[in-house]
UniProtKB/TrEMBL annotation:
GO MF annotation list: NAD binding; UDP-glucose 6-dehydrogenase activity
Record EC number: 1.1.1.22
UniProt-annotated binding residues for NAD(+): D30, K35, T86, T122, E155, K266, R331
Domain UDP-glucose/GDP-mannose dehydrogenase C-terminal: 317-418
Keywords assigned: NAD, Oxidoreductase
Name of the protein this chain belongs to: UDP-glucose 6-dehydrogenase
SUPFAM superfamilies cross-referenced by the UniProt entry: 6-phosphogluconate dehydrogenase C-terminal domain-like, NAD(P)-binding Rossmann-fold domains, UDP-glucose/GDP-mannose dehydrogenase C-terminal domain
Organism name: Algimonas arctica
Binding residues for substrate: F152, L153, R154, E155, K207, F252, L253, H254, A255, G256, G260, K324
Catalytic activity of the protein: UDP-alpha-D-glucose + 2 NAD(+) + H2O = UDP-alpha-D-glucuronate + 2 NADH + 3 H(+)
GO process terms (BP): polysaccharide biosynthetic process; UDP-glucuronate biosynthetic process
Catalytic machinery residues: C263 (nucleophile)
Amino acid sequence: MKVTMVGTGYVGLVSGVCFADFGHEVVCVDKDPGKIETLNAGGVPIFEPGLDALIAKNVKAGRLSFTTDLTAAMQDTDAVFIAVGTPSRRGDGYADLSYVYAAAEEIAGLIKDFTVVVTKSTVPVGTGDEVERIMSEHVSRDLFEVVSNPEFLREGAAIDDFKRPDRVVVGTTDARAVAKMRELYRPLFINETPIVFTERRTSELTKYAANAFLATKITFINEIADLCEAVGANVQEVARGIGLDKRIGNKFLHAGPGYGGSCFPKDTLALVRTAEEANVALSIVSSVIEANESRKRRMANKIVAALGGDVHGLRICILGLAFKPNTDDMRDAPSLTIIPRLVDKGAEIVAYDPEAMDEAKKTLPDIEYADSAFRAIDGADAVVIATEWDEFRALDMRRVKSLLNAPNVIDLRNIYRGEQMRGLGFSYTNVGYPKPKET
Ligand code: UDX
């Protein structure tokens, strides 16, 4: 099949490349000539493990190309995907759909034969209807069908998530569109991936409901972690104990500094706004948003408390800045809330992240950056593990101790064991564990 992918952001680029790898002929389009130039020169504008190799392979095979020219890209296309950004609108939290609608209008003007127009961007319920209305002003209604096909991929695991998803959700009841979408995802039938065909609005809402539910799960375990600390219980064992119940499931039960990223914060907010408009109270999702925001703020207090209540003049090493490992994405990362608070309290910050430092410098230009974990640790009064990158999981702790001014480790991702760390002479604080017994 011939596929046009409009938007080479995270979702667009990964989806386009993976569709090409499925064997389809894919043209990725972006208005930003810089991005297209980078891609055509063999570069990748985002950090995603495995993506560079997959792009090179499919470009070489002649199935994948990049252009700024939508007219050329849409020649004989079977399906056009709209994968442009839907950022939170400043001030009100609604999803900003102006890029989606502009793309729809442009696409409509170029349609000649029956084309499936698929919204891949996360869009609020009813967006497909509006896209259809806009397009109908420019092209005959029987020449296109607007389909919702939300993307559930995670940054850092995007290729695997795309190629081996738990399910694919497709929102359309039009038989021609169903046939095209089946053909597009045919390679997934081989591994028996369930494809949920449903009505368009239901599909749009499914994406938000999924993200809101996952954000709720994380926030729930984070609050249980606080309770564990207060009453002397162990959150990882609670998570295991509840997660083995199949009705609950063991995923997304890792306590930590609060969720961040490009999806959960934006989508939970947009869902609540949609519900408000529909006069429905989403009290659980609203509480999740509030609890997660306040958690990120409280993490700074947790660090200060672990360091005796005053960090004035202390040099604190932050390991990990991105909102999670294997990405350079800093959007809504807990580190962006924690670091300025520590600076306000008089701490001197030195940070290291394997991939996200260039991004971090845009928001946090005034802190010090080191080019390796050990350089960041050298001479610090405490180490805070803010993101669980693999390279932080097995640090030579004897060396860490010898480099530190004072042996303080605050592990916001629970990647070390308390007994072991205390055995090595560290003052060690993590999330959701009983306080160490006084000796
Ligand atoms: C998420 C969804 O998982 C994905 O399906 C959707 O398409 C986009 O949003 P992503 O934002 O890439 O993906 O990352 P994810 O791995 O889901 O993590 C989100 C945040 O939750 C991170 O800040 C992570 O650290 C945090 N998290 C996740 C936890 O704190 N605990 C967990 O158990 C899981």
